[in-house]
Amino acid sequence: MSCGWRAVWDLTHRDPRPRPGERDCETQTRPRQTPAPGARACTATLSKAIGQVAAVRQKHTLPDLTYDYGALEPHLNAEIMQLHHSKHHATYVNNLNVTEEKYQEALAKGDVTAQVALQPALKFNGGGHINHTIFWTNLSPNGGGEPQGELMAAIKRDFGSFQTMKEKMSAATVAVQGSGWGWLGYDKENGRLRVAACANQDPLQGTTGLIPLLGIDVWEHAYYLQYKNVRPDYVKAIWNVVNWENVGERLQSAKK
Ligand SMILES: [Fe+2]
To answer: How close is the Cα of 150 to the center of ligand 1, in Å?
Structure first.
């Protein structure tokens, strides 16, 4: 095992107490002011190895759905779900990984111009991954109906009624110009639920500070194959598959 990889292994696995005979790559066994020959090269190897491990650990993956592509029919058909998840979301994940790799290279070089230039791709692909990951869990073949418990109480407190919340969120979602998302979010500062809309793949929390509870994707890839240009019909249908249990769990987490 090379000194860099052994050190990385040690950082995550070994007993922190020094072991006899381990002196070649462990700076704590030597005074700092008198580095051993080759210590600098070893440190560089170690830094590179840590970077590689960090890169591996931070790689994003496409989350599995907990239901079949056809499970949300007739409200969302299988073809839409398959393309949406396995193609569109997968592309955001892949491009996010590529962007992060480039960003790490730019950081390592101290290239601020390159870091700034990568920001739009990070926002777009990172947002796409965050948003879709939430979206799949917001839906369920056993969804629809009305929320229960604290979530319902919060909706009634902040919107007057469940029906009013649905109408406000539907209107905001349908009104998104071009591609974007409608959201029910939690404003942690004042403990209130709020309806919001975001353009493109702008993530709700990173853009507005609201914690996302329920998102409706109104990119055309989310509905066009089934609903064509009639976005309001898609938004109306999606309420039949909303997983209120998941939305309620998100509210509980957001309040912590
Ligand atoms: Fe989408």
So the answer is: 29
CATH number of the domain within which 221 lies: 3.55.40.20
State phi, psi for 133 to the nearest 5 degrees: -60, -40
CA of 60 to the centre of ligand 1 (A): 17
User: How remote is the CA of residue 142 from the centroid of ligand 1, in Å?
Assistant: 21
List CB-based neighbours of ion ligand 1 within 5 Å: 217, 219, 222
> What is the pTM for the complete model shown?
0.79
Q: Are residues 122 and 199 in the same domain?
A: no
Which residues contact residue 246 at a Cβ distance below 8 angstroms, ignoring those fewer than 6 apart?
A: 137, 138, 140
Structural domain of residue 41, as residue ranges?
Answer: 5-50
Residue 73 lies in a domain: no
- List the pLDDT tens digit at each of the 256 positions of the chain: 333 333 333 333 333 333 333 322 222 323 334 444 444 444 454 445 445 545 555 799 999 999 999 999 999 999 999 999 999 999 999 999 999 999 999 999 999 999 999 999 999 999 999 999 999 999 999 999 999 999 999 999 999 999 999 999 999 999 999 999 999 999 999 999 999 999 999 999 999 999 999 999 999 999 999 999 999 999 999 999 999 999 999 999 999 9
Ligand 1 mean position to 26 CA, how many Å?
A: 49
CA of 106 to the centre of ligand 1 (A): 29
Q: How far is CA 237 from the centre of its chain?
A: 25
Co-location of 133 and 210 in the same domain: no
Number of domains in the chain: 3
Which residue type sits at 172? A
Same structural domain, 162 and 236: yes
Dist CA 92 CA 130 (whole Å):
9
